[in-house]
Amino acid sequence: MSSASLNVEIRRIRDLAPGIREFSLSRTDGDDFPVYSGGSHIVLSLPLGERTHRNPYSLLGDPTDRKTWRVAVRKQEDSRGGSRWLHEQAREGMRIDIAAPVNLFALNRLGRRHILVAGGIGITPILSQARELARLGADFEVHYAYRAPEYGVFVDELEALAPGRIHHYVQSRREQIEFSSLLAGRPLGTHFYICGPGGMVAASMNAGKALGWPESHLHSEQFLAPTGGEPFDVKLTASGKAFTVPSDLSLLEAIEQQGVDAPYLCRGGACGQCELEVVDASGELIHHDLYLSAEERASGKKIMPCVSRLKGGCLTLNL
Amino acid sequence: MTIAFKPDETFRGTYTYRNSPKGIRRFPFPFHQDQYMYSVNMEPHTKGPEGSVFENAFDIDEHYIAEMRDRAITLERDPGRCVSLPHMMDAEWDTLELIMESLSRDYPELFTLTKDGDRWHWVNKPLGIDQTFTFGNAATLPCPPFEYITRQTQGDFVIMDQRDNNLFADSGMITSQADWSLMFDAGMSFMEWHGPVPLAHELGVFERALKYLLMLQQGRPVRRLNWTMTINPRLDTSPETYPEWGPDRASVTPDNVGDKVHLRVELQALFRLPRSNGMLFSIRGYLASMNELATYPRWAKRLHRVLSTLPNELAEYKGLVRYKPTTLEWLSKFDDGEVLPAGTQPE
């Protein structure tokens, strides 16, 4: 049940800043890409040796551009291979498979005003959202925080899109977003969107809630890279497989390596599609996802195998 | 493939609608087994067997021209059967694009679409339409894009906006509904809209369906069948016109069951829309009289068993209570008790 996939060629690679590269992709069959909605992401299938590594990246270009899709990738310090491959191995002309766009960070079209906030590489979905809002003639503003001037990689594109509505916060100049003032006194019908590091997202959500914002008007996106961890054993009841998940593979990747077709979409703990039923767990479930509720976690009956693991012992799944 | 259209048949007054033998054979009979209960019976809406109603994304059949005329009559009488909220304009264009691309690809002898950038040229031969317009500019069409294209496509349509982890019925072209009101339901959330359906809520059907649909992907539409029964081959069975058709339920006699009572099957499909992230819900209806269905005894037997075991709440909700006994009596002639293997096939 993998996603409908498209084969694309890496047409252009641009180094935007230290550790940040942009990839322009076009279809190898010569057809046009479909359009997509602002905030969408795609999943790239990267050929890492004998295994395929799948990472989600937000589409950052013009959603109506049917010839070229663009993603930007920051090299992760603790990369398990995906972003490192894109930074070290990927070359123009290479072909890879990608999955059709999915949007887990969509704009609310009833919003009267939209506040977009990006931290670092979190600018990517914000850019396509801003383009969509500009096309719709909607009322919006962008707050873009980055480490140092050279890391403000999409400043020019943003300024061209919405002159006067882009606010910059440069960490090296000790500038930072004060969410309690940014979110205060906003009229009803305002929607807030943030993509950035976990701490920044949490701070903004807390500020919004403290100010009485309804949760339905606070939108965030974070993709979690699957963190490795200790190896653990897995038994699959329906397919009758038993195997060990090594420390450098996610549970989902290990299941796929066994040739078992498991559902997935975002592979980043956000969408809920890969949810599996836990039959038995002789160790501690380590949930890393953003999807399961506190009660669901406490029940010990569900796990999102794209990012979560077991600590010690054996995990039995209904799959 | 050529379709012999029946442009003059009617869905009101004289009720001259009939299915050809080929039309009966491709009827999407919905009952796999002898009993019916709600379920999340969704499957990928992929290309089905040639000639079947599942062959194409949007099925066009011999009733196309007549159905589009009936829709025009209903809209003339009640323009409120087409509703679209202001934030749905992107989704309207998404829908127009999806339908025009599908029809011109699947029925090249009937529909053609040529694009020169945003300048589009659409030709609908059966309805005699030749339109050049600018994609994205509603002023270049004779009416808004959703109304424009759904006046040319069989079936009812709802576009749902996705927000707050929910789906809202924010646009609709509804002229052949099974007794629900678009004016009443417009803007409702998924659960509100399905509020009146009996038993299914308790089974958790809608919760699971919603969770599934929120993750529906571009290019991977899904479908399911739903059904009810209708007296006379009438498309406009809306609450707004209930006085015109409601009393017909009392007109069924042992002599006219075969002609008057129709099984009404909805082929429902759901498509993720790309630029709006909305979802198109198509409700493509098929009508077959008891006489037509009984040309395949297997179907008559199966329907007899399904109706005789149908829970009362469902019969009540579907509005069958009044004529169910007469219909059962008529169908019982065909039911010799033969064990029917699972499956919906006619023979």
TrEMBL record, chain A:
Cofactor: FMN
2Fe-2S ferredoxin-type domain location: 232-319
Statement: the UniProt record of this protein carries the keyword Iron-sulfur: yes
Tagged with keyword Iron-sulfur: yes
Listed CDD domains: fer2, PDR_like
Listed InterPro entries: 2Fe-2S_ferredoxin-like_sf (IPR036010), 2Fe-2S_ferredoxin-type (IPR001041), 2Fe2S_fd_BS (IPR006058), Beta-grasp_dom_sf (IPR012675), DmmA-like_N (IPR054582), FAD-bd_FR_type (IPR017927), FNR_nucleotide-bd (IPR039261), MRET (IPR050415)
MF terms in GO: 2 iron, 2 sulfur cluster binding; metal ion binding; oxidoreductase activity
Gene3D superfamilies given in the database record: 3.10.20.30, Nucleotide-binding domain of ferredoxin-NADP reductase (FNR) module, Translation factors
Domain of life: Bacteria
Keywords (A to Z) from UniProt: 2Fe-2S, Flavoprotein, FMN, Iron, Iron-sulfur, Metal-binding, Oxidoreductase
Signal peptide as annotated in the record: none
Domain FAD-binding FR-type span(s) in chain numbering: 3-108
Listed PANTHER family: CARNITINE MONOOXYGENASE REDUCTASE SUBUNIT, NADH OXIDOREDUCTASE HCR
The protein's name in its UniProt record: Ferredoxin
Organism of provenance: Methyloversatilis universalis (strain ATCC BAA-1314 / DSM 25237 / JCM 13912 / CCUG 52030 / FAM5)
Lineage of producing organism: Bacteria, Pseudomonadati, Pseudomonadota, Betaproteobacteria, Nitrosomonadales
From TrEMBL, chain B:
Database matches in Pfam families: HODM_asu-like (PF11927)
Protein name, entry field: DUF3445 domain-containing protein
InterPro entries linked to this entry: HODM_asu-like
